[in-house]
Amino acid sequence: MKRKTKKSNILFKKATKLIPGGVNSPVRSFSAVESSPVFIKKAKGSYLFDEDNNKYIDYIGSFGPLILGHSNSSIIKSASEAMKKGTTYGACHKNEIVLAKLISENIKSMEMVRLTSSGTEATMSSIRLARAFTGKDKIIKFEGCYHGHVDHLLVQAGSGLTTFGSPSSPGIPKDFTRNTIICKFNDIKNLEKALKENKKSVAAIILEPVPANMGLIIPKVGYLESLMKLAKKYKTLVIFDEVISGFRLSIGGAQNFYNLRPDLTCIGKVIGGGFPIGAFGGRKDIMSMLSPSGPVYHAGTLSGNPVAVSAGIKTLEILKKRNDKLYKDLDNKGKYIKEQVEKKGFKSITINQLGSMLTIFFNSNKIENYSDVLKCDTKIYGAFFNQLLSSGIMLAPSQFEAMFLSTEHSKKDLDYTISKLIEALDNLGIK
Question: What fold does the segment set 6-69+377-427 form as a domain?
Fold first, then answer.
């Protein structure tokens, strides 16, 4: 049956008159895949349902938060009960402590935790804190790693090995980014060169330990360990941006998966159970510098929102209870998709998979950093995306986003998806 689009198209036209580009986040526009956005009216388990009554197996998962699938009954119950008591207080409540304890118990490096309303707010605040603690101004970030829409983090790389960044969005003064240094992920020599050239001036290295905002990139064996050693040598803090990987790659995030202990960590997405939330935390001596116990200012009207916190508590409780089996099952699902597609012998694609995340790159070479990603064929990805959409499969409308699996994806879902992935690749003449 042909996919219906009439209602979504009408809604998009209405949206463009009131909302810039018709969307509240750019990737939702479907412009990267030369299509028009789908307007969703409800979701359940592994499925999305749009305004035209099309049904999709969902691999966006709201870009990462929904590890337990859509509309989990336990989470909805918890949030609903919290909502009956009030939607926001602007005051302290005991569940803030419960959530902070759950986070700290599972991510050991987060000795103290401060709740925020978004991942962007978490990264912004952690960098301010790192600068205050070290008394240094410069930070190092990596090509292709996205840390939210903060001015000094919206920086693209230059053509050299390591360059001072230029703003990658209009409206950002160059002065905002002059203290941001760009390095190449998975290239330890490149990082060491940057640290040597900026000796005694780098406050922190911020990175996604497992980048998932340029498609999924897997760190080389030993890379993260070497990065931590270099940071210690040059007396710079390490900030892990685990907004995506936290509580998704494992109960303790990427740092637990790789047995590492950064100085500061930023999390979000999964910890809200589908509600807007973020958090940052780390060493007690660093976190104690936050106001009101210290001089570094951070505040938020909706920080610790009782509804989001209740949903987050329930999510983490479920993850903790089902811990080993849940994460093993998710990893097996990811491996199953990767292995079944690779069995067909396609030479023009590369599949990166780790745990419940994977990306099909339209490039025959290894994809290990941002430069590799930029060599992928985005036009073919767009055609691939649209074929799958017509088959009732929702991938991210961009080559540069990961697929996210949930506990709710069934064997039937996976088998159907695999068959349609292979069919689309064959139709596109992928060898």
Answer: Aspartate Aminotransferase, domain 1 (3.90.1150)
**Domain locations in the chain?**
6-69+377-427, 73-317
Q: Which two tokens stand for residue 260?
A: 């590492």
- Does the predicted TM-score (pTM) go above 0.90? yes
| 336, HSE (Cβ side, Cα atoms, 13 Å) | 19
Write the pLDDT tens digit of every residue in 128-144.
999 999 999 999 999 98
Query: Mind spelling out the 3-state secondary structure of 122-157?
Result: HHHHHHHHHHHHHCCCEEEEECCCCCCCCHHHCEEC
**Tokens 């985005």 belong to residue:** 378
Q: Which residues are CB-contacts of 227 (< 8 A; sequence separation ≥ 6)? A: 188, 191, 205, 207, 238
| Residues known to be catalytic | 146, 241, 269
What is the distance between the terminal CA atoms of the chain, rounded to a whole angstrom?
28
The segments of the chain whose pLDDT lies below 50 read: 157-166
Q: Give the three-class secondary structure for 92.
A: coil
* Cα torsion 290, 296, 302, 308: sign: negative
- The amino acid occupying position 256 is N
All residues at 6 or more sequence positions from 272 whose CB lies less than 8 Å from its CB, including other chains: 65, 308, 311, 312, 315
Q: What fold does the segment set 73-317 form as a domain? A: Aspartate Aminotransferase; domain 2 (3.40.640)
* List of residues 6+ apart from 209 with CB closer than 8 A: 219, 224, 240, 241, 242, 245, 253, 254, 255, 258, 260
